[in-house]
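Database export, one record per block. Field names are fixed; values are copied verbatim from the stored entry.
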Amino acid sequence: MNVRKTEKDATLALFLSDARARVDRYVAACLADRDGDGDDPGRLREAMRYATQGGKRLRPALVLASAHALGASLDSALPAAAAVELLHAYTLVHDDLPAMDDDDERRGQPTVHVKFGEANAILVGDALLTEAFFLLAELGDRAATAVRVLARHAGARALLAGQAQDLSLSAADRRDPLALDALFRRKTGALFAAAAELGAVVAGAPADVQAALGAYGMAIGVAFQHADDLADGDHPDAARAAEKTRELLARARDHLAVLGGKALVLQELASLVARGGV
């Protein structure tokens, strides 16, 4: 038995479990009936809570891990972590709509538009996106930078461009390695990059460290999508996917050099993602 590897796996598992519990509590508090009057037209807030149930909380955990590696407390990073999770949930709600991927099930449950209606699902996505940026205002003098980071990665030049590209790709395009890489960078890598970069913003890291963490997040995000498609049997080129994932893992570790010996959780998270362990 590789005792060192077992210890590292246990450390990462504990961190991810703690991160998920913290994020779950914070998101639940954000979406609670704060006024206590039960006023919820169209069951909008109920549907928002439904949309954020379940999931691995991998992206918000990445915010927390990045911030923690740079000396910030986990609590100080929770607004940014929750913002990333709410934005991720919004993308899933809208992706599942009949006009997009037309999925009836998400995480073993009916999708939001199936349970609450298509019009409500559109509003739920809009509300989650709006709430995400509202949470970033909790970051005080770092809020403006955080808003710019998330908007840059989640907007029409990145994440949304990936969804648009996904809707328009032909079968031949999906077998083109360059087209697939561009899709993965936009649709998946962008939010991972935002998460890691936001952790650095919360910690008050200099611009070069923020950029390095963003590049690390991009690398593991693209690796995650390769691994996920391989696991689902959807990848058009398994051999290339395995090679690309190894390359991305090495690249991610290179980007972590700026942290010196403080990057254990981020290094192990990269390995876990690359081998499809999440």
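Remark 1: The first strand starts at residue 105 and ends at 106.
Remark 2: The two ends are 22 Å apart (CA to CA).
End of record.
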